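ligand=S-adenosylmethionine
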Amino acid sequence: MNQPVKVGDKIKLTIDSVANSADAVGKYDNFIVFVPFAVPGDEVEVLITEVRANFSRGKILTVLKKSPFRVEPVCKVFGECGGCHRQAVDYSKQLEYKLKIVENAFKKFPGVKINKVVAAKEPYYYRNKTQFPADMKQSKIGLYALRSHFVVDVASCPLVSKEINTIYAEIRTYLVKIKYAVPTLRHVVIRSAETTGQAVVIFVLKNEDFTRIHEVSSYLRYKFPGISVLYNINPEDSNIIMGDKHFVYAGDGRMAEKIDKIEYGFSAISFFQTNTAQAKIIFKKIKEWVKGSFEKTALDLFCGVGAISLYVASEFKEVVGVEEMGQAILDAMQNAKNNGIENCEFLNGRSETMLVKLMKQGFKPSTIILDPPRKGCEQELLNLIAKCAPETVIYLSCDVMTLTRDLENLTGHGYKIEEVVPYDMFPMTYHIETLVRLSKGPALKKDLPVKKNA
Ligand SMILES: C[S@@+](CC[C@H](N)C(=O)[O-])C[C@H]1O[C@@H](n2cnc3c(N)ncnc32)[C@H](O)[C@@H]1O
């Protein structure tokens, strides 16, 4: 194909839509141009920064004519920082765009209706966890620029909780005061519990030289006496933020959240849903779907600290949770005890291997709940689930592409998609959380071929 643009060109473009990424999309001479941070309806002057066979990328130089859906971003560094992507879009339009993305992804399942996206009550200050990368050489702490490891110096972020912003501001002020003289510091991870106010700070360090970071920690404890401070050592240069080694500077390094009646305690390194308010709405929906299954059992794969298992336990005779992270399983067991829940069992291991074991033992859940990481499920696991043949599968996903890939497997095995509900768990970003309920249809005779995950 003959591309009508080259790197360095300045072109005028009308933005038509958004992609399932940080980008908005326009066409120049019928050739796709991805432009981050733009708004459908904008007319923009764009600098072309990358050209590939079938698409190009550009960045906004000037907004020539504002879209009617364009709003003033709350954040001063919006567009410079890559932490969020849609702050310039009116919130109700953000929801419409997210619905379109989900609808497009579900086109391979004709006839499946997608519910409206459940809006967040609070589209700002919702994150209960954030990692701030630090660049000690450039005397900066903040957030990464889009698709880059360049640290944009930010003073605060309107997506993270007010508590996190307050703690972050103190850390940043102190780093400025000591002229960023903590050469080992790589990231500052801050978690705050929305429902209990507890907070943990994890300083991710290159090595175990704690001399300068102790000073920051001591100041932090003076400012916030109840706060836990941990050190994580990560010598590797990779995209993974935390290493395997932890040290406690102060506090017990534990967090607690309450969703309805259930109290969850968890270690600072265990997963907990990032938007507590939206998690509660999702958990309620799951409970509504499984209501009154008192004679039946459920299997919660990828259960983390038992968040969903414990929330729905009152509806089942028994719930088994499976999770690969040992600490999270210990947390889940303790949570069951603390909440007086006796019909939950938690098993440490990979979902794929544990399901084989459970099936060999004759365990036959009526419902399987799946909440895997972004990469979705292994195809072997989905084949096993089909063999296990629960009446209902409930799949919670933060990536609609891997979700629909996995649903192709389950529907190929005769499962029927009954309901699809997208949730806006991450306002101002392109990310979408989707909850799906499937029911067992007539079983297919043979296994589907095992495809390798991308
Ligand atoms: C998206 S989180 C969901 C946690 C939980 N359902 C919740 O609502 O808090 C995914 C979890 O799956 C775990 N995990 C990742 N791969 C796994 C695997 N192959 N088997 C079991 N657990 C896994 C992660 O450690 C993480 O706790």
